[in-house]
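Exercise 7. Predict the joint structure of the components listed below.
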Amino acid sequence: MSSNTAGRLFTFTTWGESHGPAIGCVIDGCPSRIPLAESDIQPWLDRRRPGRNAQVSPRREEDRVSILSGVFEGVTTGHPISLIIENTNQRSTDYQKLASIFRPGHADATYRHKYGVRDPRGGGRSSARETAGRVAAGAVAMRLLGHFEATRSVEITAGLVALGGVQADASRWDDRTIDQNPVFCPDAGAVDAMLAAVEEAKAAGDSLGGVVEVRARGVPAGLGEPVYDRLDGRIAGMFMGLNAVKGVEIGAGFAAAGLRGSENNDPMRRPESGKLGDAFQTNRAGGILAGISNGDEVVVRCAIKPTPSIGVRQKSIDVNLDDIDLDGVGGRHDPAVCIRAVPVLQAMMATIVADFFLLARTRNQPEF
Amino acid sequence: MSSNTAGRLFTFTTWGESHGPAIGCVIDGCPSRIPLAESDIQPWLDRRRPGRNAQVSPRREEDRVSILSGVFEGVTTGHPISLIIENTNQRSTDYQKLASIFRPGHADATYRHKYGVRDPRGGGRSSARETAGRVAAGAVAMRLLGHFEATRSVEITAGLVALGGVQADASRWDDRTIDQNPVFCPDAGAVDAMLAAVEEAKAAGDSLGGVVEVRARGVPAGLGEPVYDRLDGRIAGMFMGLNAVKGVEIGAGFAAAGLRGSENNDPMRRPESGKLGDAFQTNRAGGILAGISNGDEVVVRCAIKPTPSIGVRQKSIDVNLDDIDLDGVGGRHDPAVCIRAVPVLQAMMATIVADFFLLARTRNQPEF
Amino acid sequence: MSSNTAGRLFTFTTWGESHGPAIGCVIDGCPSRIPLAESDIQPWLDRRRPGRNAQVSPRREEDRVSILSGVFEGVTTGHPISLIIENTNQRSTDYQKLASIFRPGHADATYRHKYGVRDPRGGGRSSARETAGRVAAGAVAMRLLGHFEATRSVEITAGLVALGGVQADASRWDDRTIDQNPVFCPDAGAVDAMLAAVEEAKAAGDSLGGVVEVRARGVPAGLGEPVYDRLDGRIAGMFMGLNAVKGVEIGAGFAAAGLRGSENNDPMRRPESGKLGDAFQTNRAGGILAGISNGDEVVVRCAIKPTPSIGVRQKSIDVNLDDIDLDGVGGRHDPAVCIRAVPVLQAMMATIVADFFLLARTRNQPEF
Amino acid sequence: MSSNTAGRLFTFTTWGESHGPAIGCVIDGCPSRIPLAESDIQPWLDRRRPGRNAQVSPRREEDRVSILSGVFEGVTTGHPISLIIENTNQRSTDYQKLASIFRPGHADATYRHKYGVRDPRGGGRSSARETAGRVAAGAVAMRLLGHFEATRSVEITAGLVALGGVQADASRWDDRTIDQNPVFCPDAGAVDAMLAAVEEAKAAGDSLGGVVEVRARGVPAGLGEPVYDRLDGRIAGMFMGLNAVKGVEIGAGFAAAGLRGSENNDPMRRPESGKLGDAFQTNRAGGILAGISNGDEVVVRCAIKPTPSIGVRQKSIDVNLDDIDLDGVGGRHDPAVCIRAVPVLQAMMATIVADFFLLARTRNQPEF
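Solution:
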């Protein structure tokens, strides 16, 4: 593990700044002979892309991915898969002003403090643009999972279940709904209120937070490496490491703190299928017991803070630590970064499952 | 990183099962010439120990730590510090019964499924006993932090802020209170209600969940390694990987999802001290911006599920996946594992800060 | 990887100093359900043990290994295997004198310079005693290899092929001979001359270097992870990292530098067995092509310097960098450390093959 | 560490195949604020480039490096430095024939066996072209070393000291000579004979092996991380992992095996400079004691096999393991790959020293 590489066996390294010539991702550890083409990755990037609709950042990027290595005649070769996306729409004329100020809630102050230098154009390395690499890695991970018998039926989905004050009804989750609305909400009944909340916040020059839920079905029991590389630990570590995420919970999550053991334990009954995952009568565990998948659905929720870039006046300081007042942080921003976090977290989950699947193959687990 | 090793530079590896001859911890990467003795570690273990009082597991362990290597004439040598704690009070006569059943909410089913074999005595490797190693590593980490100028004033504290339905009042947090009550609660006003809740749950053969808050003060700005080894990501990954933790939040956490940018951003004003950490007028960020410490207090909360071992009847299955009814899970257990999680999470935070401090020394950060 | 941990999936961490209370080894990543007992490990340690005969260090250690974790009812559990060996025969009364001087060819000067402090008793951490952990890990690795179909027929052997000026005849290598003489020489015809050389050097208060050859047969084709974790690279890195090793060569080794391509390439012919490894008509490659095992015998030779501890007078300096003359370095030492390096290198090869076998299982290699 | 990433703190990941659209290198862990431009890297690549002269492969590549990230306004930002080199001169029309045969001494058989698929164009991933990334990383490492006080005077040089049967005279080593002849020989007196040997081998359709020596001066004492990440171990692991290297020795190397302790130990005398490195009166240790640099010159030699691609007829097999006769392996090849290995090994040494320097900063070594 190094600072810009995620994973142990299925690893990916991202590089690039928002307004440099390109960004990219190098995937290492992907087994050979897995069919892979740019057309497997592009749709994932298209979902994440800014400029997709009125609810997200108006910056329009083609985000056209090219595979530069690791694929030959349509299949992976077992060697690093280098993916590149050119930055075609950098607009960074006025970054000099941004270079000397610290925007509240942003990376500006800490990046400057840590590195002593900072590429201020569009957030530089701290830009959400970096997440394109995560999404691309997730697309490759899905191909990997689809290739092996034990993971062929893994399905990973994600949706926005809260936005501003609007809550989706979890019981009305419908995967098909997610891509039929611009906020990736799985509950059709909540979409209009969410859209209205975004419009209202935009009009006020303000921004909204939200909650993203990720669900992974068909994850085989037995993934996770206790005690320091547990499935729940890895998910939490990766997800909390995404920009703007301030909380992660699995299964009953924070609600479990208020339950009794008799309420929180998931009762088990003999599974007709013979599969452990079908034994659980409830899923307050969120599909993970003692850091190992139990075969039930893995359910994770992330709290995402409101976009720190807002139009209203804010108190801040500059690089000399002197007071400044910010009247609207310039640039093009999402009013609610939680929306675009949906496909990113979904993709990251895929990379995690793929990595633990490979790790499980090094164990004496005959089904893998 | 391997499954039983945490950290990148200041690493620790734990080994041992609940009822084996001993458990232990090997710390690697600790710089040399740091004063260290068993008496620096023992008090930390004593706080975590079962049998300390009526609120925690009645199993009584001496938990006497011995340093087997890495220290010479009172100082660290730069070589692995091997710590061992003998298991003196194993009572495992009736484990054969436990060996064939899966207790709800426990590691039984997933460990058996993954490994095909399981040491059922006292939870084996999944026992909370493993956390003694984490606590010992935390004690060493505190010595390390105390040795260097830049981290000398780091103070890490932790307390139980919710237990069952009882909430502590965060505004009444007092570090001194924490060790003056058996539930590690920082709010003296909540202690009686918490104790009553424990008694009530015990009487009912049931258990309680809770919330632990960890606070790290004096953490210098500039710790954390974006984008895949961020301070927030590492904390969440480590903390969620502790038994029974089901949620982690930093700063405003899940509440941030319901705020607007104008409410959630922390305003900054010129710090008289000249220190970045003093610029923030609020701390909804929880001391971390973009994965890097900002010099303000690092604040983390963990949701901990109720102890899965309960006395009331539960539906479960055995290793053949056949139905069984469990009438009270035997053994000696904490009615609320969240209590003993307090010193463990506190110690784990120390190891994380120490590791990121060493990582920061490899950067071009002159203050370290 | 940390400084005291070797391997990626099958990892082992050693700890302990020569004259501390014990030394040990923690093996992580070993799959579960592999039969393992102390009696599998002890014979390996016995071969390495000092005091075994007149040719090696007269220090007598029982080197009795205990398994403290990771094994339950005779099989591995998939959790860390902690091995401990107590130091029963430390004789360190006069180490104060050693503490202030730098013995030529020893770790004294660099350890002191790097760490600022040093346990001088018996070499401390730099003692050959540390290698007991490597040998124990090798014994476990052999059990692992024996457990899986693909690696069941791996045989690893090692012998001393040069000692002082005496060369063994490689064409007369006989595995059975190795344990029938005190210098682990595979050529019965060279044993007497080697023994005489040792006696002569001892009498002169001097020491001898030598060459150890390690042969691994039955290594399946396909092990190794180009381009930075190649099989040859890992072997060289591990072997050169053993005390006193100053050179490593594989197959034709340094001789290859003087050959032409037409002489050095190994011709191939259709293997009747259908196995790639049987296609090679010669083995100048030493069983490795482009960093991957080719199925032929893996052959490695290590040059080992003479024991630096000698009785003759030497010029040296002390911790203040002032001149001193050393009249015989005290303590009990091997006149030729290369002898005891034989079982150590053999064991290390086993750990490497086991680790790469597990890595190969994460690839799409159906035979594993 | 993953298969295509080298290093622990100063890491680099290479990607790309010989005849794909591009090759590249992502450097992570480089501290910020180090001046860096493409013009710092390009000269290193130019030295390694094929087509430089008659002695190396006639393939002509521009090998023009572009920095895509991690540098802003002329200094490193602390984020990944992505380097890309386009492949402008791929000539791969006839690779279909190569795809089905295994060339002796090449990666063909083992890559095919391991991965089941192989990009045969120009050697694909196993091509020497991959080493451009190593050279680029070395150039960045030199900038890093030049930036810090403790490493400012590190000088790394390398030369070809044997080619075919021709030996350079080590006592006549002159750094300036190295770039004044096409075979990077440091001994002007050996150049003509080496050139004649190359011509003769080319005329015979054959190839030559050789020995490269790398010397690192000014390496501060105290670098290296015993016992599993020693400086000598890392050098040997990295160097042996370079294509065609079959042996590595440090200092006296294989010759040490034939010496006595009294001959091999380096005597020490009080250094007037007060520097440990100046205390050694001889350097049979090659600048490394017990895995840690001792401040003296680090001296390493690598045996490099003759280029396996030759024009003379060879016995081989195809992918079906059937016999074939190869009458001259097509393509453009170096008659002696050891020549181009010179700048590659030199650059790799730079990355190793840089990485261990950063590691040493995490120790309590005040000079760093």
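Discussion. Chain C has a mean pLDDT of 94.
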